[in-house]
Amino acid sequence: MKLVAVTACPSGVAHTYLAAESLEVAAKKNNVEIHVETQGSIGIENELSMDLINEADAVILTNNIGIKNEDRFKGKPVVRVSAGDCINKGETIVKKLQQKLAK
């Protein structure tokens, strides 16, 4: 399974990057390929290419603030979660996506 994600938070500092790291760790632990773009206080980092987006089975977006260029994900299954949930429940999010997409 391949996932892409965009993490962002209102201040664009800690939660943005902690959420990204948590999703990356959870994906690795569950043998899932993931690429995470961060939209933090210093701008967009690790911007997702259209190839990565097209190859992805699903998209995870944080819902704390608006995601820039969100229209890139049109037509893809999108899961919206808070940055806090990404940090605290990253593995649960990845596992639920695995179960849902396996059907």
Automatic annotation (TrEMBL):
InterPro entries given in the database record: Bacterial_PTS_Sugar_Transport, PTS_EIIB-like_sf, PTS_EIIB_2, PTS_EIIB_2/3, PTS_IIB_fruc
The keyword Transport appears for this protein: yes
Keyword Transferase: yes
EC number: 2.7.1.202
First-level EC class: transferase
Domain PTS EIIB type-2 per the UniProt entry, residue ranges: 1-99
Pfam families: PTS_IIB (PF02302)
Alphabetical UniProt keywords: Kinase, Phosphoprotein, Phosphotransferase system, Sugar transport, Transferase, Transport
Gene Ontology MF terms: transferase activity
CDD domains (alphabetical): PTS_IIB_fructose (cd05569)
Cited PANTHER family: FRUCTOSE-LIKE PERMEASE, FRUCTOSE-LIKE PTS SYSTEM EIIBC COMPONENT-RELATED
Protein name per UniProt: PTS fructose-like transporter subunit IIB
Source organism per UniProt: Enterococcus hulanensis
